[in-house]
Amino acid sequence: MVSLSTNPFFSLTTQNAASRSSSSSSSSLYSRFAASTKFNSFHANNKDHRKVVCACVAPPTNFKSEDSSALRFNGSSKSEQLSTLREQDGDSDVLIECRDVYKSFGEKKILNGVSFKIRHGEAVGIIGPSGTGKSTVLKIIAGLLIPDKGEVYIRGRKRVGLVSDDELHGLRIGLVFQSAALFDSLTVRENVGFLLYEHSSMPEDQISEVVKETLAAVGLKVLLYDEPTAGLDPIASTVVEDLIRSVHIKGQDARGKPGNIASYVVVTHQHSTIKRAIDRLVFLHKGKIVWEGMTHEFTTSTNPIVQQFASGSLEGPIKY
Ligand SMILES: Nc1ncnc2c1ncn2[C@@H]1O[C@H](COP(=O)(O)OP(=O)(O)OP(=O)(O)O)[C@@H](O)[C@H]1O
Questions:
Q1: Fewer Cβ in 10 A, N or C end of the chain?
Q2: How much is the pLDDT for 104?
Q3: What is the pLDDT of residue 171?
Q4: For the ABC transporter domain, which residue ranges apply (predicted)?
Q5: Diameter of the chain by CA atoms?
Q6: In a domain, 163, yes or no
């Protein structure tokens, strides 16, 4: 589990950014959603970096449209065909890439050569058995952990060290919904509304709109969710899953306005979240990606690892 903050919405920031921060407004929606007021004031005070963020709002040069992206990632074609399409398209729409990433904690080898790409417009799920390194992957993508070996590329540029002011590359990466902070001490409404409900009687159909507006102001473009629905009842899970969808560029709120998050990555064990909030899955097992496919392929895959995981069977290659 990622447990960096007790805040349900944690925008990644850096030491330098933090030291520049000076003001906060705890009552504003802005600070409620961004949670890191340091991040906000960093943007307010640093015009150069704000320019970088604005620059990234434009889609990649060869990116055609959200519609073409939706077709590519939501169509019924098989993963193999999708791979061909992607190769033909090139990597101009790749926002984040992990290339042959290794990570150990002491003697424990956790990641043993993890490679995958997150493209503009994608809703990607990272699934796999407990303790297999899913949260570790999120932390590495976020720039909070350094791989022992291998590289992370942010919009084609190699990250060096931890996330830093100089390494934003025009892409904001936000880490949202840490389970450790969720649902234990807050009600579902507070969680879903990112504490909005604390001082507001705003109906739920307005919440996602406020979330989107605030995220737009902060400039986040890729969100990483670590087990956002862990411990929730099925109905509350649905509300959270729909909120995740609604802030995505392929989602829309009750008034039909599109979201503005380019891509998101969800670590989850919940089948409902896989089905409702994720388009493409990567399966992590024993420190490697052992399967990638569209969500609809998850339950029909002939891969024994995926079959066992999807059915919850005790029989199969995954041993505890
Ligand atoms: N900072 C750390 N120091 C030492 N060990 C760590 C550290 N972070 C993670 N680990 C270990 O690495 C392994 C993978 O942890 P991680 O949280 O990434 O797995 P996960 O797949 O997200 O697990 P789960 O599905 O149970 O949340 C675990 O055995 C964990 O105890």
A1: C
A2: 97
A3: 66
A4: 96-311
A5: 57
A6: yes
Using CA positions, which residue lies closest to atom 16 of ligand 1?
133
Pocket of ligand 1 contains residue 268 by CB under 6 Å: no
Q: Which atom of ligand 1 is nearest to the CA of 136?
A: 18
**192 is a domain residue:** yes
Cβ(69) to ligand 1 under 6 A? no
User: Can you tell me the distance from the alpha carbon of 258 to that of 67, in angstroms, rounded to the nearest whole number?
Assistant: 12
ipTM metric: 0.98
Number of structural domains in the chain: 1
What pLDDT score was predicted for residue 115?
97
pLDDT at res. 119: 92
CATH of the domain at 228: 3.40.50.300
Q: Is the CB of 114 under 6 A from ligand 1?
A: no
Which pLDDT value is given to residue 210?
Answer: 64
Q: What is the mean pLDDT of each run of 10 residues along the chain (320 residues)?
A: 34 31 29 28 27 22 32 33 46 90 96 95 95 93 90 85 56 57 40 48 65 54 86 87 86 73 91 95 96 94 93 90
Cα 40 to Cα 220: distance, rounded to the nearest angstrom: 11
Q: What is the pLDDT of residue 232?
A: 85
Domain range for 216: 94-311
**Protein residue whose Cα sits closest to atom 29 of ligand 1:** 131
Q: From residue 279, give the alpha-carbon distance in Å to each of 4, 24, 250, 267, 272.
A: 27, 37, 11, 13, 12
pLDDT at 251: 81
The predicted structure's pLDDT at residue 282: 97
Task: Decide if 73 is inside a domain.
Answer: no
Mutating to test ligand 1, I would choose from 132, 175, 227 the residue with most ligand atoms within 8 A of its C-beta, which is: 132
Task: With respect to residue 226, please indicate whether it lies within any of the assigned structural domains.
Answer: yes
Q: Ligand 1 center to residue 136 CA distance, Å? A: 6
Where does 58-98 have alpha helices with state H? 66-74, 79-89
- Could you identify the atom of ligand 1 that is nearest to the CA of residue 133? 18
- Of 4, 103, 108, 267, which is best to mutate to test ligand 1, by the most ligand atoms within 8 angstroms of its C-beta? 108
